[in-house]
Amino acid sequence: MIKDKKIRLLAFMQMLLVSMLAVTIPALITTFQRVFGLSITQSSIIPIIGTLGGFVTNLIIAKISAHLGLKRLNQYSLLVGLVASIILAFTGNLYLFLLGMLLIGINTAFGLTTTSTIIAHIKLQYQNYGLFHAFFGVGGFISPALISWLLARNLSYKYIYLFLALCYFIFLSIVTFSSLIENRKYESINLKEAFTIIRKRFVLPVLLLIILQAGSEQGIVTWSGNLFHDGLGFSLERATIYLSIYWIVFTLARLFIHLPEKRLGKLNSVKICVGLLISGISLLLISGHPIFFYLIALGVAPIFPLMQKYSAQKLPEREVGLFNGLVFAAASIGNVSIAGTMGLVSGLGLKISYLIPLLAALVILIIVLHLSKLKRLGIISITPR
After folding, report:
1. Which residues, in sequence order, are CB contacts of 318 under 8 Å at separation 6+?
2. For labeling, which of 115, 214, 258, 303 is most exposed (least CB within 10 Å)?
3. Is the distance from CB of 72 to CB of 184 less than 8 angstroms?
4. What is the pTM of this model?
């Protein structure tokens, strides 16, 4: 097998592993509440700890990625996941449990940034960001299925963390003892140079777009159960089924986005996706029919990987680590701000809260049209490598 294909497969499988560890939190939240005696309000600190940990981690990675080297970064990200899994597999202490939750947030940020940087360093013909991000969705199916199997047989939830610890150990060994991932280093990026990168004409618009897209994606999913049950009158069981189908459509959309991308280009594909997103939200709120919820998944899923690929291919390799760190830090900001605001506004009405991602989608469309204009004017150059 061609070396770049092997590296891509290794990155994809690590993305799957990062997803499986991250998704254990929502899948086990009620179990954690019971085991550690937490109320719903008290347990709300769990995702907050992870998100803040991930945000700080991405800022740090953005600064040190060029100096440490790609292989070393990959080893550290896998080590964090291994430690988190071991802690959660054996602890019964609340504070160690919360440390494990913090490490999951750090591992998610670290893993996403590192694996996406690995993908950015292989030849362009092997860079498939849609398939890369689809592996995160696949992890979203596998982890809950394994947890459901364990709980149905009255087995401890800790077995999932033992399994993940073993997987992290295997991948850490592969990365450490094989020559697949080279420890590419670049001259450290200083603060002044970092601002120079950020000031590139396409970087800030893309980061703003990522904030809006990631926050909308998180908010739409987080409050969908309440929307269908409390806002639209469906049962909780049906709301769960609708969400499961949503993730299937979401994953398939990311898996096959490379097909329209090849024919239409990245920005034109994003325009179509935003149109689907705007239509899906509008029709869902007007009609209340769940089929439009799947249209939302079809529209929102490809935007992130398309824009990440669009940007990463316009930067020198040395700057890709910094950019990916900024991208996932921006996603963390969106997850906290937009999803949180939707929760606060939901007191006025659940349908009103969904006007926030609708407004965000309109702003995303304006940003994409702006980037298209810069491309037509020759201000943004085509892929330099």
Report:
1. 66, 186, 187, 189
2. 258
3. no
4. 0.70
